[in-house]
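User: Design a sequence. Structure:
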């Protein structure tokens, strides 16, 4: 019962730690993916006060935040390593308990067959049959005894991993400390960027026209055609 409860708790904590690690990696990779998608539109939004493009500044802040998220990667790796080690022990204990269950069946059968030797009015056995039944009983009992001892040790080893739960969660806390320690500056920078983005204005149309010579040429051709008309 203790092993079953521990396995359930360990499974819950492991799933949680794996989800935290996966989420942190996705968050760390998200800025690069977003910035790659912006591409040539980096100058689409300008600061309402200075006229400077805003997206390059946002890119710098996101890259810095991505680096901060990745700074705690060693703690996430330690979490997964400790959890995997504990699950390996509980898995070994489960395997040994199954092996013990399989060893019980031949033992019970051998005990029953050897027990027939003591029945007064049962079947008569030859000396050779009696010898074989007793040897079979001995082998089955020895095998069951051996696997029982191994299973007991495996369960003890698995339950000794309960302290690992504390270590796993400790690494998670250290990850949070690593990521958020001294993050007030990040918060201020992003709060300022949020205000600047909310008050942003589109890039000047002249700049857009300069980036699209084909459009300007088309406008010139249209104007010439209009002038030549009677």
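Assistant: Done.
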């Amino acid at each position: 019962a203790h092993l079953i409860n521990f396995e359930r708790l360990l499974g819950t904590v492991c799933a949680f730690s794996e989800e935290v690690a996966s989420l942190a990696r996705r968050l760390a990779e998200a800025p690069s993916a977003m910035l790659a998608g912006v591409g040539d539109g980096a100058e689409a939004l300008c600061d309402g006060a200075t006229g400077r493009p805003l997206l390059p500044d946002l890119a710098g802040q996101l890259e810095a935040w991505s680096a901060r998220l990745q700074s705690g990667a060693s703690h996430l790796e330690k979490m997964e390593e400790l959890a995997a080690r504990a699950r390996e022990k509980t898995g070994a204990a489960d395997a040994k308990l199954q092996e013990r269950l399989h060893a019980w069946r031949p033992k019970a059968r051998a005990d029953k067959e050897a027990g027939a030797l003591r029945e007064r009015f049962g079947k008569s056995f030859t000396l050779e049959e009696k010898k074989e039944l007793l040897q079979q009983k001995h082998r089955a009992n020895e095998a069951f005894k051996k696997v029982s001892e191994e299973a007991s040790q495996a369960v003890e080893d698995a339950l000794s991993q309960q302290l690992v739960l504390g270590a796993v969660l400790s690494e998670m806390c250290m990850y949070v400390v690593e990521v958020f320690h001294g993050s007030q500056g990040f918060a201020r920078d992003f709060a300022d960027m949020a205000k600047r983005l909310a008050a942003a204005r589109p890039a000047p149309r002249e700049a857009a026209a300069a980036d699209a010579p084909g459009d300007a040429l088309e406008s010139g051709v249209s104007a010439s055609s209009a002038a030549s008309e009677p």
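Residues 73-115 form the longest helix (43 residues). Helices lie at 2-38, 55-70, 73-115, 127-159, 162-180, 184-198, 205-210, 213-228.
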